[in-house]
Structures are given as C-alpha cells and as structure tokens.
Design brief:
Length: 245
C-alpha cells in the first residue's frame, strides 16, 4: 500500500512500480483499511514534512499498527539536526511500552541496542550515501558550476521490527554481541586509527586502535568506514590484557 496525497507523486509511483502486482494507493492513512497488516512499512522523508510533533506521533502509531508481527518499519529523514530529531522521537515513541501491546519492538539498525539514544542534544546521528544525480539536477546546477554527476546524500534512519524478524534465520541479535556502529568517518593516522562508535551498551565511545593492538584488528580498523558495524570484542580483550600488564 502506498499512502500519498499528491496526484503527481501517485502517478510517479505508477511509473516506478510498473508491473509490480498488488499495489494499493490511498491519499491518507485514515482512508486505508485499519485492519490491514503489512510486512514492511516505509516512511521516507515524510515525518519531517508534517505540521507538528503531535501529528507525527499519531502518524507513527498508525504506521506501527499497520505492521504485522515479524514485520519491519523503516523511517528515513534528511541527515540534519531536525531530521535526526524526528527519527529519534519516533524511536523513543516506538520503544515506549505503552505503544506496543502485542510484542516488544526490536531495533535492527543503525543502533545495536534498544536503550535510550546516547546522542547529546548538540549532535546528531546520520550517515552518507553517494547517489547518482539525474539529468534535471545536473541542468539545474550548471549555474553553480557543479559538474559532478554524483552527490553525497546525508540521511538519518531507523529500522525496527515488531518482535523477531519473520523468516530471517541470518538476522544477528546485536544486543548479545559486541558489535558497534561507526557514527563518524574513522580518523586514520600513521600507526593508529580513531574510531567513534555507538556501542551495544548504549554508549558513545572513541576507541584508538594502533598497530600494537594486533595485525588483524588494526587492518580491520584501517578498512572501516562511516556507518559500518565493527566488532570490538578483540579490542576489549586486548585492552583488558594491556591493563593487566
């Protein structure tokens, strides 16, 4: 089901999804069947365009109610302080025990935990994806001498499931691992790498990984990128060993 009040965007979706079966299009959530459940709900660059926080909360609750057990809801907003605040508020709302009555939600990404977001008010969690510019964009940017046919799109997002993900035996439970999400581009110096991560313990941490910490760990750190998952198990074990010396 596609919820879109704009006739132009609705027609655009018909072109983009040509031949895709069983697509229902409605102008508003309220005009859809309240009993219908879906295995995937996506709200992309939508919530920040709504009038205020109260309407956003109502919309998030309604989208969640349309998600079936084992389904996944994805929220994507611009990678700005405002966009991240919208995503963070949706995250807080969905993890509130008063919202879910069927099963407990589980965060799939980017967080590797379901605790309170540790980002301070002056910062924001966002990522970057290089995308191809369309011809219309290139034409519009000629006056600014932007000749590159690509740009780095900044975005904030949340992927959250209603209970365990259905039919996905390969899904890893990050809360029972030592995986962390890199929230900034690693700073790679000569002989060591600074890694800023949000850990599965719900904390922000800067780890300094040098050659002396082990060949494999150092190699992984040099190859890591912003947004990657990074296993800090080896780092934690080496750190503990060094402190005992």
């Amino acid at each position: 089901m596609i919820v879109e009040p704009s006739d132009f965007m609705t027609k655009m979706s018909e072109t983009m999804l040509y031949g895709f079966p069983n697509v229902t299009r409605v102008p508003y959530i309220s005009s859809s069947d309240s009993k219908s459940k879906y295995d995937l709900v996506i709200a992309s660059y939508v919530l920040s365009e709504l009038e205020d926080d109260s309407i956003r909360r109502i919309t998030v609750r309604s989208l969640w109610d349309h998600l079936q057990i084992g389904g996944v809801m994805i929220v994507v907003e611009p990678g700005t302080p405002i966009g991240f605040k919208v995503v963070k508020n949706a995250r807080t709302l969905l993890l509130d025990s008063s919202v879910y009555s069927e099963v407990k939600p589980k965060i799939l990404a980017p967080c590797t935990h379901s605790m309170q977001c540790p980002q301070p008010g002056w910062s924001w969690c966002h990522f970057s994806q290089r995308v191809q510019r369309i011809k219309l964009q290139l034409h519009a940017k000629k006056s600014s001498k932007a000749t590159q046919d690509w740009e780095n799109e900044k975005y904030s997002y949340l992927a959250i499931s209603k209970g365990d993900v259905a039919q996905d035996p390969n899904h890893q439970n990050f809360e029972n691992s030592n995986m962390s999400r890199l929230i900034r581009q690693p700073i790679k110096k000569s002989g060591h790498v600074y890694i800023d991560a949000c850990t599965n313990q719900g904390m922000l941490a800067r780890n300094i990984i040098g050659r002396s910490w082990g060949k494999d760990l150092y190699k992984d750190a040099r190859k890591s990128s912003w947004g990657d998952l990074f296993d800090l198990t080896t780092f934690t074990e080496v750190e503990a060993t060094k402190k005992l010396r």
